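mind reviewing both lines:
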Amino acid sequence: MQKTKTTTAVLIFVSILFGTLLASSATVKSFSEIYPVSHTFVALAESPVQANPIDFTYAAEKSVNSVVHVKTKSKVMPSQSRGGYSDPFFDFFFGRPQLPLQEEEELQERPSGSGSGVILSADGYIVTNNHVVENASSIEVTLNDKRAFKAEVVGTDPSTDIALLKIDATDLTPMSFGNSDNLRVGEWVLAVGNPFNLTSTVTAGIVSAKARNINILSANLKIESFIQTDAAVNPGNSGGALVNTRGELVGINTAIASQTGSFSGYSFAVPVSIASKVVADLKEFGVVQRAILGVQLIDINNEFAKEKKLSTLEGVYIAKVMENSAAKIAGIKEGDIITAIEGIKVKSTAELQEQIGRYRPGDIIQVTVLRNDKEHKFQVELRNLSGNTGVVKAIDLVQLGAKFQPINDSAKRKFGVDGGLEVTSVEKSGRLAKAGVQKGYIILKANKTIINLEEDLAKVYEQVKSDNDDDKVLLLTGIYPSGQVVYYAVDLNE
C-alpha cells in the first residue's frame, strides 16, 4: 500500500487475542509541516528545576491482585454445506427457508479469546468489557495467584461496553474505587491487565484527554465519554483497570487507536463514574436502568454557531425535543443550549451523556439551558425508553435459546430498514434453532409487530405465551446478511 503523509487511524477493541477491528479515518499533518525544523527554539527557564521521580510501586502493588485474566470459549457450527429442494418461484416472493441443524450435528466449543477483569467485591463480582464475553459459551477467570474459576454472566450493557461477571469465591481482593471526575489532563495513571496473555502487566502513562467520543460502539443509545491516555494498552488489556497513583480504579480499559493492532500512543477507558452505575444496575436488576432526556443533540462548533447565529460555543445544542419526553414535559425547547447538568458544566454530547448516564428513570435533575442568551433552569424527571419512570425488568427470552443485539446504522443502510434485532448466537436446544433460525438472522417483525429492541420481542413473546390459544406460535419476518428474506414459525407450546 502506498505510503502518504496521511495516516489512517484504526480504532480496535483490545480484547479477545487480537481484538475486533473497527476503522475510521483521520488526516494528520507531519511534525515538520506544523513546526518547520529550520526554526530555532529558545529555552525560557533561567535555571533547571529539580523534579522528584514518581514512584508507581504502591499503586501497582495495591491493584495487581485485583485484576484477573478472562478466557472465553464459544460454540461454533462445523463448516458444512446444506442441500435441499428449492422452488425459485417461492424463493422469489418469500426467500429460501434456512434448514435447521441436523440432530447428529454437534456444535463445537473452541477458545475464542481473552481479556481482563477487575474484582469489585470479595464474594466474586468482576467487571469487564462486554466485547470480551460477548457470544461466549463458557468463561474462565484466573486470579493473580493462579487460581481459576468458572464465571457466569450477571448482565451486559453494549451501550457502554460493560459486563458484570460472578465467580464462586469469598476471599478475593477488591479494588478501591476512585473518582474519575477528579482526574486531570496530565495526571499519571497505570493500566493493569493481561496483554497478549501476559498476566499481571502494569504500564504507566498520563491522562491525555477526557470525554472522548471515538464512535466505536454500535449499540443503540451508546454512551461514549472515554478517558484517553498514553499508557500502553494492547490486545488482552480489554476489561482491565486504569488506576490513579493511589491504586484506585478510575476506568476500565476498552480500546486503542493503532495502525497495526498494537499500542501506538492512544488508549481509551470507560470512566468509573459510568462503569460503577452500570454494574450496580446489573447486580440489582440484571439490566441497566437507563435514563433518557428525550432530545436530539448537536455539538457546537464555530461554523454551526455562525449558521444558527449563536453567541456562544459552550454547551450542546438541542436540535429536536421528542413528544412526551422528560425534556418536553419539563419545558425544554428546540434551539435551547444545555450548559450544565446538576451544576456540572457540559461542553459536548459526550460530557452530557456521561452526566445523564449516572441517573436512573424517576430521578429528578436540574438542567441548565441558554435560551435567547438568557439562562434558565429546569427540574427534569428522567424517563426510560418506554417513556415512563418504572423499573425496567431483565428480559427473559431464555427458552428461545438465542442472544440478540439491535442492528447498527450500517446494517440499516444496507437493507433499507429503520431497525431490526440481529440474532448473534443460537443454542441447538433452543426454540429458535428448532425452527431453523441461524446466527446472523435479523428479525424485522414478530407477529406483525415491528422489532427494534429485545424489549419489543419480549413483549410479543410474553403476549403469545399468555394467550389462551392452544397453538402458541411466534411468527418471525426477517432477513439474512445475504439479503435473503426468510419467515419462521417458532413453536412456543410447552
User: Anything to note?
Assistant: The first strand starts at residue 10 and ends at 13.
